[in-house]
Amino acid sequence: MTQRTSPPLPAPSPFPFEINRLRRHLSRVLCKKASIRHVEDITGGNIFPTYFLFLSDSSQYILKLPPATTTRLLRHEQRGLEAELLLHQQLAASTDVPVSHVLSHDLTYRTLGIPFILLNFLPGRRLSDHQHYLSEPDRQSINSQLGIFIAAINQVTTTRFGQLPAVASGSGCWQWRDGFVELMENALRDAEDMVIALPYQGLRRSLDVWGEVLEEVRESKLVLLEVGEIIINETSSRIEGLVGCGRAIWGDPLMAGVLDHADEAFLTGYGAYPPAFGKERIRQLLYSAYRAVVQIVENYYRPGDEEKELDARRRLTDSLNALEAIEASAAPT
User: Do 317 and 325 form a contact (C-beta atoms < 8 A)?
Assistant: First the structure.
């Protein structure tokens, strides 16, 4: 996110609220009279509208809003803005992982007429825009740094399992088995609402068969299911921070989505390797099946890349087949 100059803000408000309310709020929060010069929509494929705010004193900020009321949300997305707020606050309070700091927020309609999060700007370039220009040593360095950050995030613990807003409100699950079953059931109900063809019986049976394996997870840790946007220094290839930290839960670190495609450099920074066998491998197969279900369902709610759905269906089939093979090998002859 390189510093840039911008033309004055056009007259029509780019927001679903009166822009003067934002101007007044910025003056109070930032304690300065700088005006908004320009707004850049950086939402991309995200369902949460996200904007760069360029002020007249050259300072820059990030504003995140809830999805449009016309957007049909999956169950895990319904408190998504609150979840992101909680994640940013938790990372800032409990880790040294560089993230955008929350400058202001209001999850009600009082301040702007719409819920929002205001974050500070992290200078640098988005990895997604720059990765094709990286050398292999630079790419390995970034992956190793990311592994270190993910390991640090996994060291943050709490007493209950589940979605961040649920745990924060005291309604999380005491057992990881219950927490994971709730996640999977929510995804399956989203699929059933859209009459999506999925192996519902096989998925629910796997939860019953391997429930005791899930019960072995006794400590609830902070887990990023999706990493979000990575900001790098294009000169040093150092990670400057995470923006839009992605989806997170309180659960089993093996559920981290990045482990599905981790390379040697990431695993060196992370300090551990994905399990190749045993109960941890069973858990990871269950988690892979869950992520595949979510990706399939998302593609029906918000049609996009059909190839991604086909890939998710392949991963779902592979995971269920592997679980069936493990069950068959363990059955008495």
Answer: no
The H or E element that residue 231 is part of is strand 229-233
Q: How would you classify the pairing of strands 116-120 and 102-106?
A: antiparallel
194, amino acid identity? M
Q: What is the DSSP letter of 8?
A: P
Residue bearing tokens 């840790």 = 221
Query: Considering the entire predicted model, what is its pTM?
Result: 0.90
pLDDT digits (tens, 9 = 90+) for 205-234: 999 999 999 999 999 999 999 888 889 998
Residues 101 and 121: their CA atoms lie apart, in Å, by 8
Order the strands of the 162-163 sheet from edge to edge.
157-158, 220-224, 248-251, 162-163
- The token pair that represents 154 in the structure block: 């996994």
Rounded CA-CA distance 107/118 in Å is: 11
φ/ψ of residue 239, rounded to 5 = -75, 120
Collapsing DSSP to helix, strand or coil, 218 comes out as coil
Note the pLDDT tens digit of each residue in 239-279.
998 876 678 999 999 999 898 889 999 999 999 887 778 99
Mean pLDDT of the chain: 90
Q: Please state, in angstroms and rounded to a whole number, the distance separating the CA atoms of residues 63 and 52.
A: 7
With 0-12 CB in 10 A as exposed, 13-18 as middle and 19+ as buried, what is 203?
buried
Over 50: is that where the pLDDT of 2 sits? Answer: yes
Specify the residue for token string 């279900």. Answer: 293
